[in-house]
Amino acid sequence: MRPDQSTFPPKRPKLGRVKLGCMGQLVLLLVVLVVVGLGLPALITPWGFYMGGSFHLIPVWHGWGRMHSNTAGGDYVIQVSFNPKVGRHLGPRHVDGNAWLCTPRGEKFRLHLGGDFQKDLQLDTNGKTASFYMNSYNLKNQFTGNTRPSLELRGKWVNPDLVLDDQGSIARNFEPDGKLYNGRSPSRPYMKEVAPVTLHEGSNSEFEEACKAVKGTK
Questions:
Q1: Is 218 helix (H, G, I), strand (E, B) or coil?
Q2: First to last CA, the chain
Q3: Three-state SS across 69-103?
Q4: FRET label pair with 42: which of 74, 95, 146, 153, CA 20 to 30 Å apart?
């Protein structure tokens, strides 16, 4: 005769083992990703959380500024967004990100940004040098190899701002009417007018309003 299943004692859950449902596993995965995503940068590039002199929960800095060029046809607005990046062939204080440039003609260019801060940068960015280079970033550029506009900004942190100049790059990349230079004049001076710019930490909506304001300026 087969024994009745009711005669067997119920199985007890093993101690120390917790069963998680799908939602619990998803929450646990998100927690692990946040810890790894923020923990590693905090150890390797702690200065990234204090760019501009204030603490940022995520090590990213957003800022924008306005510059004027008589040679290149008026006012330009640039917005940058960057974060620390480490790599085998990168400097110890390297950043990577994106930039957007608005021209007096109402055009907007998306740029890829790279840059470096002063090597001895610790947690306080104030007074430390900064240099950025930016190139046009779109599908067409990848096929043609033409990265115009190619911009350069150099200067230093004056917390909470970045006080920079364009090393003549706006005048090199744009014509007197604000149109993008086609790069076909070998006699064009490399260093013409140098335009200063101060980048203030701010929102994308502020940048968009500033873009509207510079359209048609001279």
A1: coil
A2: 101
A3: ECCCCEEEEEEEEEEECCCCCCCCCEEEEEEEEEC
A4: 153
What pTM did the predictor assign? 0.77
Please report, for the chain, the start and end positions of each structural domain, with discontinuous segments joined by +. 48-214
Each as own residue / partner, the long-range contacts of residues 35-41 (CB below 8 Å, 24 or more positions apart, any chain) are: 41/84
Q: Is CATH 3.30.200 the right assignment for the domain spanning 48-214?
A: no
Best CA proximity match to 42, nearest among 28, 32, 55:
55
Place of tokens 């744009």: 174
Which of 113, 105, 111, 110 lies closest to 174 in space, CA to CA? 105
Burial 148-174 (b: 16+ CB within 10 A, else e): bbebbbebbbeebbbebbbbbbbbbbb
In 87-191, which residue ranges form alpha helices assigned H by DSSP? 139-144, 169-173
The per-residue pLDDT for range 119-178, each reduced to its tens digit, is 898 899 999 999 999 999 777 766 667 788 999 999 999 999 999 999 999 999 999 999
Report the range of poorest mean pLDDT among 25-34, 40-49, 133-142, 160-169: 25-34
Q: Which tokens go with 207? A: 């940048």
Q: Is 42 helix (H, G, I), strand (E, B) or coil?
A: helix
Question: By C-alpha distance, which of 86, 84, 89, 141 is closest to 110?
Answer: 141
Q: Which of 20-24, 74-78, 108-112, 152-156 has the lowest mean pLDDT?
A: 20-24
Tokens of 102: 């608005």
